[in-house]
């Protein structure tokens, strides 16, 4: 009876979703496929299972061409990959350059030292949390964790305790930012799918993410009391060598101002576009602060002229390009590098970014295939039948995909591609930024052995698999649930509609 129901028209999209996700899990974990290959094949499988006789594919010239079922699937997957790459490639590449410069110049170490000086060694956990939260805005989590682990280890050697707390504080700050802020690939794709203003997503993501981090830190403290992880040598490096970054003299580090500028300036420039957009809406009512700003800039004409420049420098790609240029200048000046040496340093992070772009774009193709198979419409019908809150539903969809296949980025891409069409027919009842954050927090849920982040933390921290499950997995799951609760509460108290 169940099989008959599952193969009916209304339930078939769920079969497509289950089969394609199962293929990804088996392909990556059992057949040892690369994530890019597994996602591309899963996208093609989902397209074939959709059972369409023909596909209408938009060509490069904008014309629509009807293609037969199997050829159409291949073209549809290629289009999904290309569309996603168009939206994320430049941002991810520039973010990789900024991250490399912060590490190589010593800028990231400078920021951490200043936070430690502000909070004091007694509150070193808070210092690691907030320095990671800010620094990881343009830096991928794996890279950020590699940077912060030596500092956490040095603190453990200095204080003789709280190693679990230090590691979890880094994980909390880094993973929340990874799921909440552009230019990380998951948030970039979700912002595009939901047609959300980039500045609004950054402001909303940082505020809700910061609140979540506060509560998440208390979880880190509880885990520290529950699981005392000893300090172990990792990767053949002695404990003395682990002190690394914390022993550099101040003379080798850039100033705090220039260390923060490549991170904060792009965020400020992107956020300015939101300020001008809100000012324009406010001025349309004929009063308020927006009208005052328009008047101060010489009226509608002057305001529009300034806004055109703000929108240009506040575009995420231009803002990050400015940040990358400053970061490269700081690196070259601080270390006295030639242009050839700077070029050599830029190569490896761009190679890493290229792989991330390919995998993320394949995830976008997989999301398009699921949409084309009717998964989004099926979920929408199910949600309407049970009157489910779309913000809660976005979290559930992202969490299920995350647990099934491991990647937070793929979970966000899949969930946003399913949820986006539902916004056209179902009132959200709050600002779309809350759906954005709920999807991001859902994609953090229950990281275990099918997640590359699990193994990065496991190997670099020196924890055993059991210790990683009892700390990292519980920390991210708690942060995911806390973030959902914060999102739901704020969506009711401050709906912004």
From TrEMBL:
Signal peptide: none annotated. The chain crosses the membrane at residues 9-28, 34-51, 88-108, 128-151, 163-182, 202-223, 256-276, 312-332, 353-370, 390-413. It comes from the Bacteria. Pfam families: GntP_permease. It is a multi-pass membrane protein. Its main location: membrane. It is found in: Cell membrane. GO terms for molecular function: gluconate transmembrane transporter activity. Keywords: Cell membrane, Membrane, Transmembrane, Transmembrane helix, Transport. One of its GO terms (cellular component) is plasma membrane. Belongs to the GntP permease family. This is GntP family gluconate:H+ symporter.
């Amino acid at each position: 009876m169940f099989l008959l129901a599952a193969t009916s028209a209304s339930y078939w999209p769920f079969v497509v979703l289950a089969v394609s996700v199962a293929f990804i899990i088996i392909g990556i974990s059992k057949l040892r496929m690369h994530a890019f290959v597994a996602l591309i094949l899963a996208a093609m499988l989902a397209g074939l299972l959709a059972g369409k006789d023909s596909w209408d594919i938009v060509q490069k010239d904008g014309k629509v061409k009807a293609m037969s079922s199997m050829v159409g699937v291949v073209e549809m997957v290629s289009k999904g990959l290309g569309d996603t790459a168009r939206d994320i490639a430049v941002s991810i590449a520039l973010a990789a350059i900024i991250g490399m410069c912060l590490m190589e110049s010593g800028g990231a170490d400078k920021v951490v030292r200043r936070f430690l000086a502000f909070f004091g060694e007694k509150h070193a956990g808070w210092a690691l949390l907030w320095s990671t939260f800010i620094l990881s805005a343009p830096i991928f989590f794996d890279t950020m964790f590699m940077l912060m682990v030596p500092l956490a280890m040095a603190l453990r050697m200095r204080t003789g305790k709280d190693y679990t707390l230090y590691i979890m504080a880094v994980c909390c700050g880094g993973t929340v930012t990874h799921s909440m802020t552009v230019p990380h690939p998951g948030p970039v794709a979700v912002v595009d799918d939901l047609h959300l203003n980039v500045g609004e997503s950054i402001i909303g993501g940082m505020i809700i993410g910061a609140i979540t981090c506060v509560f998440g830190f208390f979880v880190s403290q509880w885990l520290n009391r529950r699981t005392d992880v000893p300090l172990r040598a990792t990767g053949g490096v002695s404990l003395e060598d682990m002190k690394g970054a914390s022993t550099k003299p101040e003379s080798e580090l850039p100033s705090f101002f220039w260390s923060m500028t490549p991170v904060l300036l792009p965020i400020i420039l992107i956020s300015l576009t939101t300020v001008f957009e809100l000012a324009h809406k406010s001025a349309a009512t004929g009063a308020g602060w927006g009208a005052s700003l328009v008047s101060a800039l010489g009226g509608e004409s002057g305001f529009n002229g300034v806004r055109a420049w703000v929108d240009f420098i506040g575009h995420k790609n231009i803002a990050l390009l400015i940040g990358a240029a400053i970061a490269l200048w700081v690196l070259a000046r601080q270390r006295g590098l030639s242009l050839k040496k700077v070029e050599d340093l830029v190569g490896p992070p761009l190679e890493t970014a290229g792989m991330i772009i390919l995998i993320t774009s394949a995830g976008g193709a997989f999301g398009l295939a699921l949409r084309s198979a009717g998964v989004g419409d099926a979920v929408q019908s199910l949600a309407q039948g049970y009157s489910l809150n779309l913000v809660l539903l976005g979290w559930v969809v992202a969490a299920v995909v995350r647990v099934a296949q491991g990647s937070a980025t793929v979970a966000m891409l899949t969930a946003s591609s399913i949820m986006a069409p539902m916004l056209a027919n179902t009132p959200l009842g709050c600002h779309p930024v809350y759906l954005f954050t709920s999807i991001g927090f859902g994609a953090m849920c229950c990281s275990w052995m099918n997640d590359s982040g699990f193994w990065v933390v496991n190997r670099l921290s020196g924890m055993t698999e059991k210790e990683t499950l009892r700390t990292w997995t519980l920390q991210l799951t708690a942060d995911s649930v806390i973030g959902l609760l914060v999102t739901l509460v704020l969506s009711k108290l401050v709906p912004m509609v």
